[in-house]
Amino acid sequence: MPSWIGQSFRRGIVTTHYPRVPATEDETPLTARAPLPPAGTVPPAAIDACPVGAISDRAVDQGRCIRCARCLAHGFRAAGPVEAAVARREELEHPGAPHGAGDEAAAPLRELGRSLHVFLVDVGSCNACNLEVLALASPYYDSQRLGVFLTNSPRHADVLLVVGVPTEAMVEPLRRAYDALPEPKAVIAVGACPISGGAFRGNPGLRPTLEGIVPVDRFVPGCPPTPIQILDALLDVLGRARAGE
Amino acid sequence: MTRAGWRLVARDDFTRTPELSPAYVDPAGELVLYNDLATGEAVLVHGSPPDVDDELRAAWSSTARVGELRPLAPRRPVEGYGTFTFPYGPISMGVPESGRFDVLTYGERILELTPIGGYKARHVLESVTGATVRDAALRIERLAGNFSASHVSAFLAAAESAQGAEVAVEALWVRALAQELQRVYNHVHVLARIAEAASQNVGAAQAQALAEQLLRVQGHVFGHRWLFGALVAGGPAPRLDRGGRSWLAEALAAASRTFDELWGLFLDSRTFVDRIQGTCPVPRDTAVRWGGVGPTLRACGVAWDDRLRVPGLPYTDLFLALPDEKGGDALARLLVREQEVRASLLLLEQMLERWPGSGAGVEPAPPSVAAGRGLGRVEGPSGDLVYDVTVRDGTVVALSGRTSSQANWPLFAAGMRDAVFTDFHFALESFGLVFAETDG
Amino acid sequence: MDAGGVVLSAAVAGFFAAAVLAVVRPKLGYAVSLAASLLLFAAAVEALAGGAVHGLAWSGPLSDPEGLALDGLSGFFALAASVVWIATSGYSIAYDDRRSPLLAICFSLTLGSIALLVASTSLLLFLLAWETMTVASYGMILQARGRPDRVFSAGFVFLTFGEASTLFVLVAFAGLRVGTGTFAESPLTAGGVLPTLVFVAALLGFALKMGVAPFHMSEWLPIAHSSAPSNASAVLSSTLTLAGAYGLFRVLSLLGSPPLWWGAVTLAIGAISALLGALFAAVSEHTKGLPAYSTIENNGLILVALGVAMLARAEGLTDLYVFALFAAFFQALAHAVAKTALFLAAGWTEHATGSFDLTSVQGGVKRDERAGFAGTLAAALSLAAAPPLAGFVSEWMILESLFQSYQFVPAWVQFLGLVAGAAVALAAGLIVIAMVKFVGFAVLWDPRGAVSARRSRGLSVPIGAVGAVVLGLGVGAPWVLRFLAPAVSAFAGRPASAPVGGLLSVPNGWSILSGAPFGILSPPMVPIALAAGAMVAVGYHLLGRRHRRGVRRSPPWMAGSAPGQPGEVFTSFGYSTGLRLMMSSVLGTREIRSGAGPVRQAELATPVPYSVELEVLDVFKLFYDDLVRAAEAISSVLKGGVMTGRLGRYLAYILLVVLLVVVYVAAAFA
Predict the structure, then answer these.
(1) Which of A2, A53, A176, B299 could anchor a disulfide with B333, C-beta 3.0 to 4.6 Å?
(2) DSSP type of residue A150
(3) How far apart, in whole angstroms, are the C-alpha atoms of residue B429 and residue B196?
(4) What percent of chain B has pLDDT over 90?
(5) Residue C50's pLDDT band (boundaries 50, 70, 90)?
(6) Are B276 and B194 a contacting pair, CB within 8 Å?
């Protein structure tokens, strides 16, 4: 139909060139970057200000941060790297450390070649992370150009993207989904909720993390992480060059 | 707890008429809120609810026990040769969240559809007991991320009503601005989802691109794409100074032009319209009797919108036209959303022109009473949200509510009778239901 | 009488002896039938390979010679029938556990009468055997287990159609007698309206027996509406219809060159039957009704091939004529064998689960039942025309002959060929649905994963054997066609050679050629090609075994829900409902709801239970119901008005007839 074609030409191409170029400012709003303490010291007022207890006097646990930005009023700066996905949970407590090169846990799934099929499982999210994952397929990010495809069935998938804090009712379905993936497979925990419970840490009927349910290969902090950050984690699993490498 | 536009009635003086639509049922059984569609008033009935159906109460209850799954609409037993019930979910294709649908069918045709919720029960409303209002708001924001501004606004309105607090005008305007931005995003997102279900891939991509644009606008102005922290003190400072407002106005004008073009192309596509015309029709009587809300209700010909009734927010000073649709099917719901997009963009334009204040951050209002109970209502993107909070000394003592999805699930189940399998996704997306806010 | 004739006569006599022995011991009767079938098979092979076989001969009424003999044509049908009977008799030995010998008696009588009519050389003997066959099969149907009124009414419908068929066949044979002057089967050379009369009467009579549209009710109703025993159903569906086909072929072979419209009518009837049969099969829920509908489709295909052959003969296209005849014969053979296996499988399932309902029969396959499963699968796939099975070859041949309808000169014939081809193709698609349904729900699928009812091994092996035959017929099709050449020659009245050849490095005689030149198919090459491809896969597997992770079994994905809850699985009914709704105008689909309030609106009243039934019907049955009503009305009028039961009235009728005879005789001699 000519009118759709005309409209498309007028809109032009809006797809980002990430990861060939770094993430732009409108792809990365203020709260997309993790808050970092100033010059290594943690102001005591910030410890009380954090509603999820992510800040202690020795370290800041980025896995717990729900990006409420309250610590920004107490000296913290939103200066963390955009590419914050890590392979080990401990690395989130020491942000800024380089990605573990040569680390077996961080090894990419080379057998998959150049493409990755991804299946989303929501175990108890607020829906924001779901929509950020779905945005990967939208024209602005177009993950398909990098070989990352969203699938409708775990049988077709290589990677399980888990969002949300695990509820008791979703433990078995998640295990079944993990079991349905053929090997080689990987699990990526997206957002603060599956990493540490997010804002709902300690609520009744919830598991604290995904530990004991499925093994996790990558952790992407954020609340929610932006599509760029999720894409970065997927590229890491795939073994493709990430931005900044 | 009284305010203009509300009518208090004692239980013994109350008689239920057909034009009274239930809006909220207190779990402790102390009061029931009705919308009087004839007069436009909200009717608050004190005392244990006279004749609110048990099914309604069960369908609206957000506090499921740990691990308990419950039907979100009443089941109707059907038997017949060759019928069977299969579970669609909780992790089903095409439904991005987790929730199950029990489909009773004899093949191809849906005889009964029962949505089952509770898979995502995080017990949010229970867990904020004992927290300060500010901390509670952090969790309420993350009840349903894409409706965060509306949920927080409703909660804060209830808390402020309970505390007798006076809120700065600019703070209220920021709330309205945030809500309207999210409303536009959500409606465009619904359009994208329906287009994708109809395999209108070019149109869906264009709509997704527009939705992403709006998210980026929200991220730029409020520092967070989903407005987390935007309306609560201590969050990132919004960019609403003169420069920020003119940037926002330009961005919205561009979005408005794109939307106009997009919408025209969609409506021209006969195949697209065909898929949603007549799909999942909801009769007016059902919607009223079961307390339907939002674009779903307005698509049945009921002109109820909280924005025209809730004081404080600036809607009553600005021009807001309600959509005029009566079809009750998926097409009518989509047409209502389209008209609301235009109305919201117009509201935003007016707000930005007449902005009261300099664009500083929001500060919490000081309470004037030590303890109290308040009701807050706003019109969320998918409908009316009600919060009922009791506060003492700045701490939440009790919190319950009724979300827009909880009210509309029974309508979805009713409309899906005698539909065919392929209608399912169109119907579901046209309602804009969110399991996260259903399960609490 | 030659050696083959002795065997033939012994076979025919053996069946009747089996009927007598069955009075004392039913299983002995079946065993003797099995032996007689083997003898018949031997005689048929001799007739096809070594020339005609002549058995007993005697002089019949009006001194017309009668006797038993097999020429190429009857040899072929005897061959097909005997293969079916070998399997079915063997199966019956294990299957029939009744105390009453009636089933065994009627079984053997049916077999004997069919053998007699195929072997008879005289029209009178044929007719006698025809009638005996009808009565014996009626007896078999009455042995059904079920509500007596339904069993009786189903049997009565069968008998009615059977007698109507006898009536038309009688008319046809009378015409032949008048035309040729003898009851012996000899060609009709008279002209005028007689050949047309004979053809029409024969077509009607034998089409009634074959169960093609618009008479298909005679096929599906007795089988589906009564729970007739499965060995009976196998014989009814496979060989009764084969007898009908034989009769039609025999009469046509006596009639000489047909005018164009005969072939057109046959083609049209065949195409409609094929389509209707396939459609009804795809929406059937009865383990025996489904194969019964498939029989309607297959007999329709036989008529399609025969119709093309007759058209080709009328147009003088000898290559197409011969090819289409081979197609018809091969189709008859492939169907008879495969259908037997399907009915035996239905009986096998019924034996284990006690049910004929596809929706409730769900049985998995255990280790020592694999022969039965493999046989059922092979038979079902053959009927669904999957390579390299027999049904695939016959379907290919029929479609190829239809493709060549461009060779016909008159435009309307070409158009008819086109439309018939489209109908046959559509039927082929629909029957795939039906066969998947049958194999999936009746035999294969066990959702509970638990041990279900054990099936009898004695029933499993014959099914497996038949399946192997189906596969053999398919892979060895070129040689089978050569073996059948005498049958085609006997029918065509001139020597015909099988359309086999070789091309493109396929050895000569391994391919079937559908025209010169038109199409080519090499059935033996299909398994060879499959094996070659499989070897590549196996080689890849063996070479790369070091790098692979091994096998992991994972439960089916049910969207996160626990798999295998009872009741939460697709029923056989649900599988076909899409088709019921899509074809609602042809099937007369309607939904009946009861016990509910406002059900057509999206009304959310308090949950009131209701029940819903989705029904389809055979629209042709409505015609027959009307016919029955009309017949009853007329007969009651006659009863009330004419046959009043008063003596005076009857005396008046006698007087009237005497008067008329006197007048006629007087006029004749005047």
Answers:
(1) B299
(2) E
(3) 10
(4) 54
(5) confident
(6) yes
Count of the separate structural domains present in chain A: 1
Lowest mean pLDDT among B15-29, B119-133, C23-37, C211-225: C211-225
Contact A177 C560 (CB under 8 A): yes
Which residues from C are below 8 Å from B when comparing CB atoms? 285, 359, 558-561, 565, 567-578, 580-581, 599-604, 606-614
In terms of residue numbers, what domain contains A202? 104-237
pLDDT of residue B338: 95
Q: How far is CA C246 from CA C52, C115, C126, C231, C489, in A?
A: 17, 11, 11, 21, 15
* CA pair distance A159, A182, nearest whole angstrom: 10
Q: Kindly state whether residue A158 falls inside one of the protein's structural domains.
A: yes
Cα–Cα distance between C582 and B238 in angstroms, integer? 57
Structure tokens at C314: 């009328």
Instruction: Answer whether A237's CB lies under 8 Å from A12's CB.
Output: no
Flag whether residue A224 sits within 8 Å of chain B, measured between CB atoms: yes
Query: Is the Cβ pair A183, C561 closer than 8 Å?
Result: no
Q: What is the pTM of this model?
A: 0.88
Provide the token pair at C501: 């050849």
CATH number of the domain bearing residue A217: 3.40.50.12280
Residue C226 CB partners (closer than 8 Å, separation 6+) = C141, C144, C146, C150, C151, C154, C155
Q: Does A56 reside within a domain?
A: no
On whether residue A94 sits in a domain, the answer given is no
Q: Are B142 and A199 in contact (CB under 8 A)?
A: yes
Residues of chain B with pLDDT under 70: 1-5, 48-67, 359-362
- Token pair belonging to B88: 């669609």
Question: How many other CB atoms are there within 10 angstroms of residue C264's CB atom?
Answer: 22
Contact present, C324 and C305 (Cβ < 8 Å): yes
Q: Does B128 touch chain A (CB under 8 A)?
A: no
Closest chain C C-alpha to A74 CA, distance in angstroms: 45
Query: What is the pLDDT at residue C397?
Result: 94
Subunits touching A (CB < 8 Å, at least 3 pairs)?
B, C
- Which candidate from A172, A180, A183 shows the least CB-CB separation from C557? A180
**What count of other Cβ atoms lies within 10 Å of the Cβ of residue B191?**
27
* Whether ipTM exceeds 0.90: yes
Q: pLDDT band for C368, please (50, 70, 90 cuts).
A: low
Residues in A closer than 8 angstroms to C561, CB to CB, are: 173
